[in-house]
Design brief:
With 498 residues, this protein is α/β, with parallel strands linked by helices. Helices cover 26% and strands 25% of the residues. It contains eleven helices and 23 strands. Strand 12 (326-329), helix 10 (340-349) and strand 13 (356-359) form a beta-alpha-beta unit. Helix 5 crosses helix 11.
């Protein structure tokens, strides 16, 4: 029978263990350990204390160092469970071995299942005892922390409704496809930029990223004045608005957020320190990422390609597991600003890194809502990338991806990867392409499929030189491949990677 231990179990476990032996939040009842690779179990104890870890037929004894820290390494584990782990004679219950994925980013990753489309039915059917969830409590830190606050939960209607919808749908698809236990770790915070999730050392190591600290220095210099305005103007105005709303019988406005400054989640490295660094000792298969909205502006959209790549490499270096799969979501269609497509381009450029994959979703967004409710397709497309990249399944996992474009007889011939069976999604003419001549003025163009290429032309441009597709914040476009996955936006006068 499948055992479910309530949150009080952590307290019981802590009391039951040898008083000197302490474990991080991740090493607890219902945890899921990564199969097929060495697994670290760690914690603290009295200096020189002996600690013995027993699991899946293995017994490893270690001695705590003078600072009290200890780590025991288990040889690669075989998928299965529920099992028990014994540490100094005390039992951690309902342990699974399978696939562990970390989900991170900002509000669209944080977006809860209880607010997704068709959420009532999705929640009611979310009984998956072989999928366990761990949600990291939000925190900011000046230095790398040693632990997070959170507990492992068995995936069930009560536990999953407040969990990341994207990560849940991602994990559910993999569970049903791979038929091994799934462990999903969620660590995200709405409205935060990529630099908050990148270590201080990674930013300082790249001269091209010096703008991160320069910008934050300006924020901190302005903080005292901004905090005074917040306290003396913003809050009193909000308090009056609340009083007026109550008098009128209306819903009071939410309290306005404070200015950026000390302890703010946008602090460079602040979320890495508090919400990523403590997870690093825990073995994972890979990471999924949904973020970019907070960097999609004039100052940062183009720089994001350097910053995002540095963040991915930083995480990989920290985990020490090589180039683990890192899969991310391209920004959805949303009526925002002209730098939205530039941010998408920066995300596409990041595919130059090994074992990366991108879910294109500009066909499932909402023009007037930055938080589209269709998270099923987002999770599915990330899972398809995982099946192909992490698990080496021979499936199509991406829509048409631009490779190169060349002028040809008064038109532009555009070459794509992932291009088999290209067509429009609605069985109408392909839309979303534009071409320009030497003057750089783009006009809408006709697009016709020719094998794995598309020929783009317009009577308004006799000698086209460049072509672009879906180059707008909220594009009207419909190119897909034979499995219905949408083409990524692109412009041919910038370098791109398959």
């Amino acid at each position: 029978m499948y055992r479910i231990t309530k949150s009080i179990g952590l307290f019981t476990l802590a009391c039951a263990l040898n008083a000197a032996v302490k474990l991080p939040a991740l090493i607890s009842d219902h945890m899921v350990l990564q199969q097929g690779q060495p697994v670290r179990v760690w914690g603290s104890a009295d200096p020189n204390e002996s600690v013995k870890v027993e699991f899946q037929g293995q017994s490893v004894a270690v001695t705590a160092a003078q600072n009290g820290k200890w780590a025991a390494w288990l040889k690669p584990l075989v998928a299965g469970g529920p099992l028990e782990m014994t540490i100094n004679g005390n039992i951690i219950k309902d342990v699974l071995v399978g696939e562990v994925w970390l989900g991170s980013g900002q509000s669209n990753m944080e977006f809860r299942l209880q607010t997704a489309v068709n959420h009532d039915e999705e929640i009611a059917n979310a009984n998956y005892p072989m999928m366990h969830l761990f949600q990291v409590k939000k925190a900011v830190a000046d230095q790398p922390a040693e632990d997070v606050v959170g507990t492992w939960q068995v995936c069930a209607p009560a536990s999953v409704k407040g969990f990341s919808a994207v990560e849940y749908f991602f994990g559910r698809h993999l569970l049903n496809n791979l038929h091994v236990p799934m462990g999903l770790i969620e660590s995200d915070w709405g409205g935060t930029p990529a630099e908050s999730w990148t270590s201080r050392e990674a930013v300082q190591a790249d001269p091209a990223l010096k703008f991160v600290n320069e910008n934050w220095d300006k924020v901190m210099a302005n903080y005292p004045a901004a905090k005074e305005r917040y306290d003396t103007v913003t809050i009193p105005a909000w308090e009056k608005a609340v009083a007026d709303a109550k008098t009128a019988g209306k819903t009071p406005p939410n309290r306005p957020g404070g200015p950026q400054g000390t302890g703010h989640p946008n602090t460079p490295a602040g979320l890495y320190n508090a919400m990523i660094a403590p997870l690093v000792p825990y073995g994972i298969r890979g990471a999924i990422w949904y973020q970019g909205e907070s960097n999609a502006n004039e100052a940062n959209a183009y720089r994001y390609r350097r910053l995002f790549g540095a963040m991915i490499q930083d995480w990989r270096n920290r985990w020490g597991q090589g180039d683990f799969p890192f899969l991310f979501v391209q920004l959805a269609n949303f009526h925002s600003n002209p730098y939205w497509p530039v941010l998408r381009e920066s995300q596409t450029e990041t595919l130059r890194l090994a074992n990366t994959g991108m879910a294109v979703i500009h066909d499932v967004g909402e023009s007037k809502d930055i938080h589209p409710k269709n998270k099923q397709d987002v999770g599915l497309r990330l899972a398809l990338a995982a099946r192909a990249i992490a698990y080496k399944q021979g499936i199509e996992y991406a829509g048409p991806m631009f490779q190169v474009a060349t002028p040809e007889n008064g038109a532009m011939r555009v070459y794509f990867a992932h291009a088999d069976g290209m067509r429009s999604s609605n069985h109408e003419a392909i839309t979303g392409f534009e071409i320009a001549g030497a003057d750089g003025k783009y006009v809408a163009a006709e697009a016709k499929v020719d094998g794995n290429t598309i020929v783009v032309s317009s009577p308004q441009v006799a000698s086209p030189m460049t072509v672009r597709y879906a180059w707008a914040d909220d594009p009207v476009c419909n190119l897909v491949n034979q499995v219905g996955l949408p083409a990524s936006s692109f412009r041919s006068d910038q370098p791109h990677y398959q």
